[in-house]
Amino acid sequence: MSTIPPFPDLAAEWAEARLLYPVYSALAKEFVIDVPGSPDLEVGNDTPPQESIEQARQWLREVDGRIQVYQLRQFLQTTSLATQQSLQTLLLHHLRKAKKTASDRDKLDFLLVQYFSHCAPSRLEESDVDVEYVAQVLEPVLGEVDLTIPDWLKPLEQIMISAQRCRSLSELLHSGILEQGRKLKVQCGDKYFVPAAMISFARFSFLMRRVFFRLMHADLNAILDGLRQLESRGVTTLDCRRAQFSADEPVSRLRMI
User: Fold this and answer.
1) What are the pLDDT digits (tens) for 97-119?
2) What is the DSSP string of 114-170?
3) Cα of 122 vs its chain's centroid, Å
């Protein structure tokens, strides 16, 4: 299991709560999550009484329980609040939970990949994304990790190879590859929270993102090439009713879309 140390004192716990508050407040506002604010966290008293700290704990627990994984994902991929510090704080917040739910697992799974993506160089080659490198980037949140990969995680590599062989986004989405990775993650239960497992799944998810976007861009380029060829042959409209468009959709509009 993950061995994130507890807070050394109440001041450290309060400092983390103050860092989380603006992120959670903005997220709750964006998705209209009806949860009252925390006056003490709003004011940001540096030396709060014990009662304020307990209220902050309760507030964070309530918001955690209301936030869905898709909301966290959508928010952190679009907000300027998703800094390295805020992502690290969110990760540590979830890692410190004594009892983690399936929702916590999915949130951690996303946060680890998001944190890695934020910290890793933009021109990082896929061949450089080995387990050792991922562990190095995630060390600020997971600490030093024994990178002995258990046998039950070995299928991840084969799933990754199968994904890299896909030649289109449709092939990837209909091959069952994504479901295989998800199934393995669910089946491992609490073993997911072993640091070596979290690192392996973070690497897997990051590389799967790369595959997804590579195939998506390839599909888009193929579509644009096809539209240009049609235009060069004098075709100006297409019957796009199967795609929920009109029977005579202008090629120029399709290119813009």
Assistant:
1) 888 999 999 999 999 999 999 99
2) HHHHHHS-TT--GGG--HHHHHHHHHHHH-S------GGGTHHHHHHHHHHT--SHH
3) 17
Q: What is the DSSP-derived secondary structure letter of residue 188?
A: T
Residue length, the chain?
257
Residue 238, SS3 per DSSP? strand
Q: What is the largest CA-CA distance in the chain?
A: 76
Task: Decide: helix, strand or coil at residue 206.
Answer: helix
Is residue 16 within 8 Å of 57, Cβ to Cβ?
Answer: no
Burial class (CB in 10 A: 0-12, 13-18, 19+), 84: exposed
CA dihedral 215, 220, 225, 229 (to 10 degrees): 130
Name the nearest CA neighbour of 255 among 230, 247, 234, 241.
Answer: 230
pLDDT of residue 150: 87
Q: What is the mean pLDDT of the chain?
A: 90
Which residues on neighbouring strands pair with residue 238, listed in sequence order?
249
Alpha carbons 2 and 98: distance in angstroms, whole number: 10
pLDDT at 47 over 80: no
Q: Answer whether 155's CB lies under 8 Å from 184's CB.
A: yes
Whether pLDDT at 165 is above 90: yes
Residue indicated by tokens 């973070």: 202
Q: How far apart are CA 118 and CA 111, in angstroms?
A: 10
Q: What's the token pair of residue 136?
A: 């190095």
